[in-house]
């Protein structure tokens, strides 16, 4: 459906496949959406004719199955057998999910929690609930439920098998919340690709490589990319599935920024057809491009705009407006010399830095001096504090402190 809506050359084929795929299931709403799209895009195709017979039969069968499962669940509740009640809720929830009633499925899955008596049952409930939340794109709730799933007393083997699922789902949730650094950390820690393949209904190993590589490239510096991505033995297996991602990261680490951007641009259209990634492609690519420009300019005090255009601009276009935007937003610390057509670095004034450091040192010295005066005054007055709770502060009056300072300055304080 996504490809059919956003891709012109693939529109008809994708929508035809969507109609056939919808008719393999039982979700009438999905079939209607696919039929509406192909009716508008290609009204002469056989799939553009509404299948009333299939719709009527499927709707009738859905109603029969819903009534049957609800009746069975009532019988289980009357018998008070917890395991039967849990299975009844699970079967009804899976049925409601298959027919597109996500709200009803979520409520039904949630009712499984009181009857979940083992660790396996708790994990089963959590995975069903998370599956619904992912379809609804409720990312904060996904993160909350992942924490609940992993909070159980699972064995080491179970933890090992659950880690790819947990990291994958958490990465998707952070990606949906636009927390790209947290998302990259999760995807880089997914673990064994063979275990990851068990959760292809959420994301494939290729998706993990793509999501992890792009979010890391957009949020990590050169040292982190080398240590956490390229030198990561666990994530290297995923990068082998998407070698262009590994190549782009290597280009960035080695300072070949134009080549890095060219590789990513060649795959932009593919990423725009990705179900989870498409909304984040402009932001991710913009951040990566800004990082490349900043890193390219970092070693120089000034660079001609002609060289900047040759490195980053498209043929016949100028980079000046983009540089102005980066300077205004604070991403690039530089100024543009429009007369000589130069990009000039703005360095911090060493005098201001020295004065700021001197002021901070003076404040620390004053604070330490006041503490010493307080100690000397207490010792000179032969005072001793006993049995005062830690939470009760000792407040000295300002007049008493002024007298102590004056005595120290004049040398009149008796020295114990």
TrEMBL record:
<dbReference type="InterPro" id="IPR045135">
    <property type="entry name" value="Rpn7_N"/>
</dbReference>
<dbReference type="Pfam" id="PF01399">
    <property type="entry name" value="PCI"/>
</dbReference>
<dbReference type="InterPro" id="IPR019585">
    <property type="entry name" value="Rpn7/CSN1"/>
</dbReference>
<dbReference type="InterPro" id="IPR000717">
    <property type="entry name" value="PCI_dom"/>
</dbReference>
<feature type="domain" description="PCI">
    <location>
        <begin position="179"/>
        <end position="350"/>
    </location>
</feature>
<dbReference type="GO" id="GO:0005737">
    <property type="term" value="C:cytoplasm"/>
</dbReference>
<dbReference type="InterPro" id="IPR036390">
    <property type="entry name" value="WH_DNA-bd_sf"/>
</dbReference>
<keyword id="KW-0736">Signalosome</keyword>
<dbReference type="GO" id="GO:0008180">
    <property type="term" value="C:COP9 signalosome"/>
</dbReference>
<keyword id="KW-0539">Nucleus</keyword>
<comment type="similarity">
    <text>Belongs to the CSN1 family.</text>
</comment>
<dbReference type="Pfam" id="PF10602">
    <property type="entry name" value="RPN7"/>
</dbReference>
<keyword id="KW-0963">Cytoplasm</keyword>
<protein>
    <recommendedName>
        <fullName>PCI domain-containing protein</fullName>
    </recommendedName>
</protein>
